[in-house]
Specification:
heterodimer; A: 53 residues; B: 231 residues; alpha+beta; eight-stranded mixed barrel
Chain lengths: 53, 231
């Protein structure tokens, strides 16, 4: 999987490393900005009131 | 497809899943707190700006007693309307109180149960807050004791509540803890009460912790901070 991505990135090793870093940052950003805020309320930490059973 | 490719892909998937879980833990433990501190400060700034714009009507001046300002019947949903201070939870502990207890609202501060009394009014002013995540506002909730002050301000008046009972552990379906006269609190007559609720255990949701307080004193903001907040 990761090997496949690495092989398909353009440029030499340095450029590939830079693009990989950018990809990782993008993935982490999407996770923190969209995926985790959606997933977190499914966990019980939000249940602090006495009326939402 | 060779066995090697299958094994490699499987290991890569495992590593990815592990990394995802670690990132999620970082998000829940750390990042929600960073975000919430920021958002709560913004809410407090919002309140203080609004209060600075509105002229404060002197409530204690003689002769002006009848000139009670006309207040809206309800607070605006999802919007801050007061700041809470609990010296026991830290001298610098202060959180905005917002109307209603929706998940979205509780990310920005403490939530006032929309169906309960208004601040300082007859009945039960009930407020919920996160025990953990989103800035951990009620992390030290079990340290609250009888006699502790819970101070609130709505921009014109300081309200000092004194805790009478708690922390009382109950189940999530026990909605009568936020009744106007909560049965288990020991109060027998109607009065101006305050209820705080949070979850218990810290990271769980099987129980709730409750404290009850009564309105001890009020003073206009021009009179300065109440004694409970002075060092």
């Amino acid at each position: 999987m990761y090997g496949w991505i690495w092989r398909h990135l353009p440029g030499n090793a340095g450029v590939k490393a830079l693009i990989s870093l950018a990809l990782i940052v993008a993935v982490v950003y999407v996770l923190f900005q969209y995926v985790f805020p959606w997933a977190e309320p499914l966990l019980p930490f939000n249940d602090v009131t006495v009326d939402n059973q | 497809m060779s066995v090697r490719v299958v094994v490699r892909t499987f290991s890569e998937l495992c590593i990815t899943a592990g990394a995802l879980i670690v990132l999620f833990v970082v998000y829940v433990l750390f990042w929600t707190g960073v975000k919430a501190d920021h958002v709560m400060d913004d809410q407090i700034d919002l309140l203080q700006e609004r209060w600075a714009r509105e002229p404060v009507t002197p409530t204690a001046s003689p002769g002006a007693a009848e000139a009670e300002p006309v207040r809206p019947a309800r607070y605006e949903a999802g919007k801050p309307f007061a700041i809470m201070y609990i010296p026991r939870l830290g001298f610098t502990w202060n959180k905005p109180v917002l109307e209603n207890t929706a998940t979205k609202t509780l990310k920005k501060g403490l939530g006032h149960y929309a169906d309960t009394a208004r601040l300082g009014q007859k009945g039960n002013f009930a407020v919920a807050g996160h025990r953990r995540t989103y800035g951990d506002p009620f992390k030290d909730f079990p340290r609250l004791r009888r006699g502790d002050a819970v101070v609130l301000t709505d921009g014109t008046t300081w309200f000092t509540y004194r805790i009478d009972k708690g922390p009382y552990k109950t189940v999530p379906s026990d909605v009568e803890v936020i009744d106007p006269v909560p049965r288990k609190s020991g109060y027998t007559r109607s009065g101006r009460y305050l209820t705080l609720t949070t979850c218990d255990p810290e990271w769980g949701h099987s129980h709730r912790l409750i404290v009850w307080a009564h309105l001890d004193s009020t003073q206009p903001v021009e009179a300065g901070k109440p004694a409970a907040l002075r060092r």
